[in-house]
Amino acid sequence: MAFSLYMSSSTWTHFPHQPHHRITAFSSILGAFLATNYCNLLTSDARKSLNKLVFTVFTPALMFASLAKTVTLQDIISWWFMPINIGLTFLFGGILGWIVVKILRPKPYLEGLIIATCSSGNLGNLLLIIVPAICNEDGSPFGNRNVCSSVGLSYASFSMALGGFYIWTYSYQLVKTSSVKFKELQAAEAEEISKTPNKDFDATSQTYLLSGDGDDQGHVAITVSSTKSSGDTQIQIVPEEPTSNESFWKQLLEPLQKILEELMAPPTIGAILGFIFGATVWLRNLLIGDAAPLRVVQDSIKLLGDGTIPCITLILGGNLIQGLRSSTLKPLIIVAVVCVRYLLLPAIGICVVKAAGNLGFLPSDPLFHFVLMTQFSLPPAMNIGTMTQLFDVAQEECSVLFLWTYLVASIALTAWSTVFMWILS
């Protein structure tokens, strides 16, 4: 995407063309071509298999390699407000997304996707592009370009790791819940269609049916009454109370079990290990540096992590072809998500960062303030596409949403970057 302009000293300047831009654009176009009937290489099954590799191998490797190399224990302590800031982006975005769902009333399987795209920004990949580009420009408002680039990459890597933690817990659960609801609705509809009424059946005054396969499912009582004078038969379905209740401890431990399940997702494990190796000096020295004895391990992990973005964009490009053909996403939903991400959230972000700065919660570095504000104005996280593919729900709608939000991002990020630097100057 062409995040190409910013204003320094009241003049507009072009960002240099970054390799990341070319990789992203080319991978998306290539993915769309490979998924067409003409080529038919990136089929639905192929995209699912590739997506599993991204989920279990490439993304954890990217998280670990970035964190272990760039974030130290001192950084984690001094940048303590960043995880709170990212949490606030998810909080406000989730609330606004919930309002959009309640007002527009989309199909149930789209609710999690809409809330996730409103709340989850691309907190790593784009910052890795934007921040160094600003630092390398002549007349950058953030001081020496070498120092700015080094510190900016640390900010971006820390943001990516924290964002990945939130995304692979909160957003992951949203998409997973939507998938479960969608499959339950599909099963209920299929079961309803498969039932054909039989008017000639003989029944006693009360017949009990067992719903589901397990013995612990609730029964349904069907009361059949007949009127001799008219010959009419009335059927009344009365749900029977479940015979057993879940124990108090099971209800109490179930949320904790779900949280642990989300923490065991491979990307989250990669982020946690990256934090541990980055914050522990002797572990860091094993992997990082020219004299590190296990330097080849870090190089190999980084090589795997570098494949994350191209693979994700290949999948998104392939899904986009199918999405343009079969997506039933309403234009009003696209407009609502765009307004949340590029109008409401950035304005909230300015207020949050300014208030935190006035209260003395932030370091004096203006680049840190800029990164915090930018976290509120980014397009949706690309990992959401990985999740929809993983759970086989709303892949086409996700790709269409990504198409429009990333097109608008080329204008919105330029405008908001200008506003942020004007505020910080």
Automatic annotation (TrEMBL):
<feature type="transmembrane region" description="Helical">
    <location>
        <begin position="154"/>
        <end position="175"/>
    </location>
</feature>
<feature type="transmembrane region" description="Helical">
    <location>
        <begin position="263"/>
        <end position="283"/>
    </location>
</feature>
<keyword id="KW-0472">Membrane</keyword>
<dbReference type="GO" id="GO:0009734">
    <property type="term" value="P:auxin-activated signaling pathway"/>
</dbReference>
<dbReference type="GO" id="GO:0080162">
    <property type="term" value="P:endoplasmic reticulum to cytosol auxin transport"/>
</dbReference>
<dbReference type="GO" id="GO:0005789">
    <property type="term" value="C:endoplasmic reticulum membrane"/>
</dbReference>
<feature type="transmembrane region" description="Helical">
    <location>
        <begin position="113"/>
        <end position="134"/>
    </location>
</feature>
<keyword id="KW-0812">Transmembrane</keyword>
<dbReference type="InterPro" id="IPR004776">
    <property type="entry name" value="Mem_transp_PIN-like"/>
</dbReference>
<feature type="transmembrane region" description="Helical">
    <location>
        <begin position="20"/>
        <end position="41"/>
    </location>
</feature>
<comment type="function">
    <text>Involved in cellular auxin homeostasis by regulating auxin metabolism. Regulates intracellular auxin accumulation at the endoplasmic reticulum and thus auxin availability for nuclear auxin signaling.</text>
</comment>
<keyword id="KW-0256">Endoplasmic reticulum</keyword>
<feature type="transmembrane region" description="Helical">
    <location>
        <begin position="53"/>
        <end position="71"/>
    </location>
</feature>
<feature type="transmembrane region" description="Helical">
    <location>
        <begin position="333"/>
        <end position="355"/>
    </location>
</feature>
<dbReference type="Pfam" id="PF03547">
    <property type="entry name" value="Mem_trans"/>
</dbReference>
<keyword id="KW-0813">Transport</keyword>
<dbReference type="InterPro" id="IPR045033">
    <property type="entry name" value="PILS1/3/4/5/7"/>
</dbReference>
<feature type="transmembrane region" description="Helical">
    <location>
        <begin position="367"/>
        <end position="388"/>
    </location>
</feature>
<feature type="transmembrane region" description="Helical">
    <location>
        <begin position="400"/>
        <end position="424"/>
    </location>
</feature>
<keyword id="KW-1133">Transmembrane helix</keyword>
<protein>
    <recommendedName>
        <fullName>Protein PIN-LIKES 7-like</fullName>
    </recommendedName>
</protein>
<feature type="transmembrane region" description="Helical">
    <location>
        <begin position="77"/>
        <end position="101"/>
    </location>
</feature>
<keyword id="KW-0927">Auxin signaling pathway</keyword>
<comment type="similarity">
    <text>Belongs to the auxin efflux carrier (TC 2.A.69.2) family.</text>
</comment>
<feature type="transmembrane region" description="Helical">
    <location>
        <begin position="303"/>
        <end position="321"/>
    </location>
</feature>
